[in-house]
Design a protein that fits this description.
Elements lengths: L1 H9 L13 E7 L6 H17 L4 E7 L6 H9 L5 E5 H4 L18 H23 L2 E12 L1 E4 L14 E4 L3 H10 L2 E4 L5 H6 L5 E4 L1 H6 L8 E3 L5 E9 H5 L3 H35 L3 E3 L3 H9 L1 H11 L3 H10 L3 H9 L4
Parallel strand pairs: 1-2, 1-3, 6-7, 6-8, 9-11
Antiparallel strand pairs: 3-10, 4-10, 5-8, 5-9
Helix pairs in contact: 2-10, 6-12
Length: 344
């Protein structure tokens, strides 16, 4: 029924490739609030450039955080021919196939700068090959959105994994996140994001694994203010188009989509960096207690990553791409750990 209602609201013929020079309205569905670096790049870069590069053949109807869809259903609606473009984190997009799961592995990137450089230089195009075949999705851009996930709780200061014993940490539906906290000794609990603030208040869960900027955006510091800068997984978000719809576009519109996607990919880093810098300082100003583990302590946190990589190999891991990512960053020590663990 929801799909029928959405189709009626947007128009019954919205999802056809443009084969004329007439202007056509494309619907972009996203759960991003306008305050994020990703949303600002969509509004200031992708949308105007797509409209411009198409020479007025495409007009974009922006549905950001309007209730049209959440991350999972935005992709569902796009694959169901109800909207044209969608955004979602790679963790939530992973519900549609495992070809993107590599981006969710802990400590695959040395830092955010390397993550941005590699995803922009070649990784997006490399992942698109299996994604278009198996997931029916094409990534127009895959970008860092808010930085590393960190470990936040409302019980006590956490310095090493053993300090997490008995603490219930909310995780996404991603097996990687669940297995990581299990390896760290916490109690991972898949829990609805929309209910998380109240869940923390009621101690249904005691913490979460999210970037510091999101702690500030959602005011979670009011109910959980112990922040341990563990890093590990980076929040990647993708901008997607259905591969079948993309292939059916006229060559000039396909080129317009690619050019706008390339602009989004290249320019989003600046928007995200400014957003992170601003909101991380706001978080400190609001009294959150940030702890940076020592080098020796970080070795203990990284040790938990091996089990996650081993589990991912059982599900499916492109070891060739993973090795290339690690080698480009000079992460030879971690490669040896993964080789010894039978992952690479």
């Amino acid at each position: 029924m929801a799909s029928v209602a959405l189709a009626a609201m947007l128009g019954s013929s919205i999802f056809t490739a443009n084969t004329s020079n007439a202007a056509e309205t494309w619907v972009l569905g996203s759960a991003q609030p306008e305050i994020t670096g990703m949303a600002q790049t969509l509004l200031n870069v992708f949308v105007p450039r797509l409209e411009n590069f198409s020479n007025g053949q495409i007009e974009v109807e922006k549905q950001l955080l309007t209730g049209l869809c959440n991350e999972h259903t935005c992709i569902e609606q796009m694959l169901g021919n109800l909207i044209h473009l969608a955004t979602a984190s790679t963790e939530n997009a992973g519900a549609f196939g495992s070809d993107i799961d590599l981006l969710n592995l802990p400590y695959i990137f040395k830092d955010l700068e390397w993550a941005n450089q590699i995803s922009t230089d070649w990784l997006r195009d490399e992942l698109n090959v299996p994604m278009e075949k198996n997931m029916k999705l094409r990534m127009l851009g895959v970008i860092v959105n808010g930085g590393y996930r960190h470990t936040i709780n409302n019980v006590r200061e956490v310095r090493v994994p053993n300090d997490l014993k008995g603490i219930k940490i909310r995780v996404t539906k991603s097996p990687a996140a669940f297995n990581l906290f299990k390896a760290w000794g916490a109690q991972p609990v898949p829990y609805d994001w929309a209910q998380l603030y109240m869940g923390l208040q009621a101690n249904v869960v005691n913490g979460m694994y999210i970037p510091t900027v999101w702690v500030e955006v959602t005011k979670m510091y009011e109910v959980a203010n112990h922040v341990t800068l563990t890093g590990g997984a980076i929040v990647f978000n993708g901008l997607y188009i259905g591969s079948k719809f993309y292939r059916g576009l006229k060559p000039d519109l396909k080129k317009a989509v690619d050019m706008a996607g390339d602009s989004f990919q290249r320019l989003q880093w600046g928007y995200d960096s400014e957003w992170r810098k601003d909101f991380e300082q706001r978080l400190i100003d609001h009294g959150a207690k940030l702890y940076q583990p020592t080098a020796a302590e970080m070795d203990l946190w990284r040790a938990g990553a091996l089990a996650v990589w081993q589990d991912q190999k059982k599900i499916g891991l492109d070891a060739k791409i993973a090795r290339r990512i690690l080698q480009e960053q000079g992460m030879d020590k971690f490669i040896k750990v993964l080789e010894k663990g039978g992952v690479l």
